Amino acid sequence: MDWTPGGLSSDVEDRRGSSGGGGFGGGGLGIVGIVFLLVISLITGRNYIGSYLAGGGHVATSSGDRPAVESPAEDRSAQLVSFVLDDVQKTWEQLLPEQTKQPYRHARLVLFRDYTQSGCGVAQSQTGPFYCPADEKVYIDLGFWDELRRIGGSTADFAQAYVVAHELGHHVQNILGIERQMRQLSARNPGQQNALSVRLELQADCLAGVWGHSAAQRGIVHEADVQDGLSAAAAVGDDHIQKMSRGAVSPESFTHGTSAQRQSWFMKGFQQGDISACNTFQNGVNDSF
Ligand SMILES: [Zn+2]
């Protein structure tokens, strides 16, 4: 993938520093730390949580073995995520009106560590990257790449790009009103909730592919990169994650689709480069793909 590190986009909100922790008194202290302080406060009768917040949140970190200061690798990743954010949004600015007659509006991307406040509740690293329709922001803790590597996915540049493009696919679904329709449909048919979620997720994969098509046409993405994207898509397939975590697979609990489905919908978008290729809702909810 061809790109040059070049600072952070104006659409990036960097909350990784200790002063920008998004209303939680700064980064550093993980949820484990907060719970620890709470327990200590209850046992001793002293308000350690209050003194933590009053002190600006600068209590020694207890959130694992990640360094408090960003590493060169993390810095590079922040710039890559920022580059992809800008490129994907520029692409949709052109494609969305062309293909759907709808104008595109920019989403923002929040970089955080451990946890931060989002329009959809507290964002936690453990949840993985996500898009919040309420504030139209993508939330990413760059520590997710370690997790992706742990479950066998590629963390090459295009693999990271696929994840960002997938989240912005959810933003496109939000602009087009698809996300809202799905939520209403889900509320009326609780039994279909997971099946509907799979369709929404596979569509976001396909929309990531539509961006990939444009990036390939412009010479940013090359044939060899696609494998990295597909590897990431396979790693985050429901069947793969379930096999990794509990050894067995239960398709009725799938919310994102299998590795094969995720790869195939990404490729559909990548090959056709058109949003019309991404109709994951065409057949009945119970039909296979
Ligand atoms: Zn998603």
Description:
This protein is an alpha/beta fold and 289 residues long. Among the domains are: 29-62; 86-105 and 145-278, no CATH class. The chain has ten helices and six strands, in the order βαααβββββααααααα. The protein has helices spanning 31-44, 48-54, 72-100, 144-150, 157-175, 178-188, 193-217, 223-235, 238-246, 259-272, and strands at 12-14, 108-111, 115-118, 121-124, 130-132, 137-140. A hairpin with a 4-residue loop joins β5 (130-132) and β6. The model is unreliable at 18-28, 54-64 and 285-289 (pLDDT under 50). The structure holds zinc ion. Zinc ion is lined by residues 166, 170, 201, 204.
Number of helices: 10
In the sheet with the most strands, the strands line up as 1-2-6-5
- What does the radius of gyration come to? 20 Å
What is the general shape? globular
Mean pLDDT rating? 84
Largest beta sheet, briefly?
Answer: 4 strands, mixed
Poorly predicted sequence stretches spanning 5 or more consecutive residues? 18-28, 54-64, 285-289
Residues in helices, as a percent range: 40-55%
Structural class computed from helices and strand pairing: alpha/beta
Assembly annotation: single chain
Say how many strands there are.
6
**What small-molecule ligands were found?**
zinc ion
Written as H for each helix and E for each strand, in order along the chain, the element string is EHHHEEEEEHHHHHHH
CA(first)-CA(last) distance: 30 Å
- Beta content: 5-15%
